[in-house]
Design a protein that fits this description.
- By secondary structure, the chain is mainly beta.
- The protein has a single domain, classed as Beta Barrel (Thrombin, subunit H).
- The strands form two sheets. Strands 5-6-7-10-9-8 form a six-stranded antiparallel beta barrel.
- The protein is 14% helix and 54% strand.
Length: 133
């Protein structure tokens, strides 16, 4: 999919149709383990996996959750190729229920710049290796 900017707006070509993109930054598909606490149940960490990651947020998938929109969430995202996690605070800005799981979109409020860069560099390298053909 190709995207371009025109008059400050981002457009993508999806199936021959030009689609207006609301996202300001590219999302990179990157599967990372994530643990999270929902606002509704702050005493329990649940598990999931990231689907994609960008400069402003991430999407993750987890079975059997129904998060409240626009509520805070605390996450621990496993760093690529390491056994350590980085702490993230964000808000749930969208959700989509699947057959046996739920996708949730998180907008970052707090994440260490160095760790975010480390994840984005890893995700970019994955993207480049997939698209070198």
């Amino acid at each position: 999919m190709k995207s371009f900017k025109k008059n400050g707006n981002i457009f993508s070509n999806e199936g021959g149709k030009m689609v207006f993109e609301r996202r300001r930054f590219k999302r990179f598909d990157v599967p990372l383990d994530v643990q999270f606490k929902l606002f509704e149940n702050p005493s329990e960490f649940l598990s999931g996996i990231t689907k994609n990651f960008s400069r402003e947020g991430l999407c993750f998938e987890s079975p059997d959750i129904d998060p409240e929109l626009f509520k805070p969430v605390e996450l621990k995202v496993k760093l690529p190729n390491k056994d350590t996690f980085t702490h993230v605070l964000g808000d749930i800005v969208w959700k989509e229920h699947l057959e046996n799981s739920c996708l949730a979109g998180i907008k970052f409020k707090v994440i260490a710049k160095e760790r975010k860069s480390e994840i984005l560099d890893f995700a970019y390298d994955l993207w480049v290796s997939k698209n070198q053909s």
